[in-house]
Amino acid sequence: MEKVQAEREKRAAKHSARQTEQLAAGEYGAEQSGRVIAHFGRTLEVRGADGAAVRCHLRANLQGLVTGDTVIWRKGEDGSGVVVAAAERASVLSRPDPQGRLKPVAANVDQILIVFAVEPTPHANLIDRYLVAAEATGIAPVLVLNKVDLLADHDGELGQLLERYRALGYPVVRASTEQPAGLDALNRQLAGRTSVLVGQSGVGKSSLIDRLLPDETLRIGALSEDMRKGTHTTTTARLYAMPDADGVLIDSPGIREFGLTHLDADTVTDGFVEFRPHLGLCRFRDCRHRAEPGCALLAAVEAGNIHPQRFASYRRILASLDT
Ligand SMILES: Nc1nc2c(ncn2[C@@H]2O[C@H](COP(=O)(O)OP(=O)(O)OP(=O)(O)O)[C@@H](O)[C@H]2O)c(=O)[nH]1
Ligand SMILES: [Zn+2]
Question: Which of 115, 148, 273, 307 registers the highest number of CB atoms within 10 A of its CB?
Answer without folding.
Answer: 115
